[in-house]
């Protein structure tokens, strides 16, 4: 009820305005404390009248109920004590009669007000319709006037044309002869007749239009006169309604004063309600903050668990890399042992060959030269192996430094997590302080409520005093005074009810505050539990990290011990090789001495042979005789010769030749192929190869192999580019274009890739750019130069269920690294299908 009355009062106390309809102006009253401004809108008037009717009906019902009650309320007792007179018993029936009369008057007034409001609405609608018709008729009039003016202008133009034609006719008559003039006059007369006919037709149409427009104007004027009469009647009715409204204003002003008072009370109540709503909003915000803190704690726990998982994965990757490096070192040791065994075998063969060299002096010299070259190459291989071991050691040290840096980063992240926990504790403390402040505010609001109660009691006392004053002044209007008293009693009763409702709301708010305090206590308990869990988790993480550090230290020590053992073995092997080289050098010196002595003997034998040859010249005939005897002896020994031929054929078959001629041809072919290959090796430096990722293990091995085969090789690197390699960022397409077009390689071996799975998972965009985009760009540039591209892929493009794999197997990568390598294969084939080869590097151990 209070809200409805307040809404009616707000509607009544609108902005001042002026209503002008049908030429009459009605000024609106400015709303002061005891006045109200009437708006012209029908909805506002109907709402106000309905609210007043409701208010009067409710007052009458409550008055009847109060009159039926026998026991008086404390408020009525107080007023009875103040207003007690000896003629109370005689005044009651008079009061009832007055009340009944007032009720009847109010009902009749309400009915009249409703009827007037309805008539006013209908009149407004009729006036609006008439105004719209008037506007339409005026528009039609303006259009007709415009058409009339246009027709008049056309008639004037035609008249001017007639005058000009008559003048031209007269001029032509004066100039031309009678014969020609007659013909021309006839033609001109015909034209004039046509023009006159046209003019007559246009004049007829114009006259018809003028008549139509005049008829329309007459109808419009009649409608205007009729509408003016209606407007005059409506103005008279409006004046009558205004008089009735002026009478109604005096009646409604009192009601509006009462409504304003009620609106003030309702505003105070709404203020309290707004304060309560604000308190509820603050409590909701605090709950939301607590939920946000819980979410942040959960996210931090998830982040810490993810960090632990990443650490475990990195440790596993380090262990895998360690196992790979151990397998690589074992393979290297096996290869070295195999090379040493090969060297031993070669030494045995060389000893056998030395024994044979004693018989063949010329072959010994060539074999000695070959041995020198092989020893020099072995020495170079040893030096290169030492360089590779040192570079591998540097790489291992760099990777260990990287792992240490990552561990330091993890420690920093743990410190950040501890700081976040401290910040959360501080925020919880600040929230507890804010809750205490909110409790203080609640206490202040309770004090304000008590003050308002006191003010209310004072206001009641003031109202009682004013009521007594009005009794003194208005003794004649006792009926009005009693009605006013009843209304005040009802107001007091309603205010008491409101006070009780407010007290109940305050009690509810206190309960809500207690519930919120309990919730906060529970939240603090949960927070403490969460802190304990976080501390426990942090301790577990710290213990795990300590264990991981201990494991890493153990692995470091084992690596260092293995490296020391490897160094010792290498030193021992180098010492053994040095000893063997010294022995070989001593043997070479002995062989050289033997060869020199043999050469001297050969010279002496040559001299002796020459002397013998000179001496045996006179005995040539005897030698011929001996040859004849020899042929005879050979004929005698034909059977022995056949047996020798059979043995030689069997020996040739064992070697894979049918006879000695085929063996000789095969040996000649081998010599020719060797010479051809040597000639090709002379042209090898013109063959150029570009190797990406030459700073890695695979790239270094490929670079070394091409260099050993006399290729003009150029290596590329980015992070650990040495002086012999070119430092290039493969993501820079301009730099890649420049180096390929400057070097013009015949072959490009693409070894560069992001092969670390943890880095690929943590930085997927960078990994895809290097493994996919850079590979596609390199294939495009290779196609532009006409180079053959070798793309190094991996067995991670398969799921690892059935190795070894073939070209026909369907790829199924399980991690992001394998997916990026598979996408790199597709990008390479899309950009350069003609000259591309994809090599899969598989771990078969």
UniProtKB/TrEMBL annotation:
Keyword terms, alphabetized: Coiled coil, Cytoplasm, Cytoskeleton
Any one Gene Ontology molecular-function term assigned to this protein's record: hyaluronic acid binding
Localisation per UniProt entry: Cytoplasm, Cytoskeleton, Spindle
Coiled-coil residue windows: 99-643
Domain RmlD-like substrate binding: start-end pairs: 688-834
SUPFAM superfamilies on file: NAD(P)-binding Rossmann-fold domains
Pfam families reported for this sequence: HMMR_C (PF15908), HMMR_N (PF15905), RmlD_sub_bind (PF04321)
Hyaluronan-mediated motility receptor C-terminal domain: residues covered: 578-680
One cellular-component annotation, GO: spindle
Protein's name according to its UniProt entry: Hyaluronan mediated motility receptor
């Amino acid at each position: 009820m209070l809200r409805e009355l307040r809404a009616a009062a707000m509607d009544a106390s609108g902005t001042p305005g002026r209503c002008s309809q049908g030429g009459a102006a009605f000024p609106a009253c400015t709303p002061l404390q005891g006045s109200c401004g009437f708006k012209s809108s029908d909805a506002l008037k109907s709402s106000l009248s309905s609210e007043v009717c409701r208010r009067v009906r409710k007052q009458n019902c409550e008055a009847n109920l109060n009159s039926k009650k026998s026991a008086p309320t404390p408020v009525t007792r107080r007023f009875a004590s103040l207003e007690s007179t000896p003629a109370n018993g005689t005044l009651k029936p008079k009061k009832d009669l007055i009340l009944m009369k007032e009720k009847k008057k109010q009902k009749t007034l309400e009915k009249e007000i409703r009827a007037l409001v309805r008539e006013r609405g209908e009149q407004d609608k009729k006036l609006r319709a008439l105004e719209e018709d008037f506007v339409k008729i005026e528009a039609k009039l303006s259009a007709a006037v415009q058409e009339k003016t246009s027709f008049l202008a056309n008639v004037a133009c035609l008249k001017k044309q007639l005058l000009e034609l008559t003048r031209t006719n007269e001029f032509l008559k004066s100039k031309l002869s009678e014969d020609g003039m007659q013909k021309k006059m006839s033609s001109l007369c015909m034209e004039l007749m046509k023009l006159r006919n046209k003019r007559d037709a246009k004049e007829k149409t114009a006259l018809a239009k003028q008549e139509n427009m005049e008829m329309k104007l007459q109808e419009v004027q009649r409608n205007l006169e009729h509408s003016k009469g209606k407007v005059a009647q409506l103005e008279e009715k409006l004046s009558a309604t205004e008089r009735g409204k002026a009478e109604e204003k005096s009646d409604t002003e009192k009601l509006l004063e009462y409504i304003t008072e009620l609106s003030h009370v309702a505003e105070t109540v709404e203020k309290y309600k707004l304060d309560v709503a604000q308190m509820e909003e603050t409590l909701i915000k605090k709950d939301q903050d607590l939920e946000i803190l819980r979410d942040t704690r959960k996210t931090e726990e998830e982040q810490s668990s993810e960090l632990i998982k990443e650490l475990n994965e990195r440790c596993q990757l380090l262990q895998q890399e360690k196992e790979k490096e151990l397998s690589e070192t074992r393979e290297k040791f096996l290869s070295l042992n195999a090379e040493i065994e090969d060297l031993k075998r070669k030494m045995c063969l060389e000893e056998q060959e030395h024994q044979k060299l004693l018989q063949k002096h010329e072959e010994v010299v060539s074999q000695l030269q070959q041995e020198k070259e092989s020893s020099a190459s072995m020495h170079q291989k040893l030096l290169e192996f030492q360089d590779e071991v040192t570079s591998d050691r540097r790489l291992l040290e760099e990777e260990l430094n990287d792992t240490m840096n990552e561990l330091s980063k993890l420690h920093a992240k743990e410190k950040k997590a501890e700081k976040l926990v401290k910040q959360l504790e501080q925020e919880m403390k600040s929230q507890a302080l804010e809750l205490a402040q909110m409790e203080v505010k609640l206490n202040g609001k309770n004090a304000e409520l008590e003050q308002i109660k006191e003010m209310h009691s004072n206001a009641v006392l003031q109202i009682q005093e004013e009521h007594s004053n009005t009794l003194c002044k208005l003794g004649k209007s006792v009926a009005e005074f009693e009605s006013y008293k009843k209304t005040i009693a009802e107001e007091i009763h309603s205010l008491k009810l409101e006070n009780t409702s407010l007290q109940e709301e305050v009690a509810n708010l206190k309960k809500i505050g207690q519930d919120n305090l309990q919730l906060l206590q529970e939240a603090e308990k949960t927070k403490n539990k969460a802190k304990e869990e976080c501390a426990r988790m942090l301790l577990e993480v710290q213990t795990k990290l300590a264990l991981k550090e201990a494991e890493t230290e153990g692995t470091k020590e084992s690596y260092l011990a293995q490296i020391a053992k490897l160094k010792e073995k290498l030193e021992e092997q180098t010492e053994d090789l040095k000893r063997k080289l010294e022995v070989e050098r001593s043997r070479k010196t002995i062989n050289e001495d033997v060869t020199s002595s043999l050469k001297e003997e050969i010279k002496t034998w040559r001299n002796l042979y020459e002397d013998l040859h000179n001496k045996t010249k006179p005995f040539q005939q005897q030698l011929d005789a001996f040859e004849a005897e020899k042929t005879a002896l050979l004929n005698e020994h034909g059977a022995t010769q056949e047996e020798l031929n059979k043995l030689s054929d069997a020996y040739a078959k064992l070697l894979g030749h049918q006879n000695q001629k085929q063996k000789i041809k095969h040996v000649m072919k081998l010599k020719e192929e060797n010479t051809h290959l040597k000639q090709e090796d002379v042209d090898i430096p013109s063959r150029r190869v570009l190797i990406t990722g030459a700073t890695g293990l695979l790239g270094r091995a490929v670079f070394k192999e091409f260099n050993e085969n006399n290729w003009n090789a150029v290596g590329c690197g980015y992070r650990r580019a040495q002086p012999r390699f070119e430092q290039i960022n493969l993501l820079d397409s301009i730099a890649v274009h420049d180096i390929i077009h400057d070097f013009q390689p015949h072959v490009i071996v693409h070894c560069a890739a992001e092969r670390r799975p943890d880095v690929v998972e943590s930085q997927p965009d960078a990994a895809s750019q290097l493994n996919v985009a850079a590979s596609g760009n390199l294939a495009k540039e290779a196609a532009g130069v006409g180079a053959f591209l070798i793309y190094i892929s991996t067995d991670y493009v398969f799921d690892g269920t059935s190795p070894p794999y073939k070209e026909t197997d369907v790829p199924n990568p399980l991690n992001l690294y394998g997916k990026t390598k598979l996408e790199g294969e597709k990008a390479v084939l899309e950009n350069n299908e003609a000259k591309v080869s994809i090599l899969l590097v598989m771990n078969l151990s």
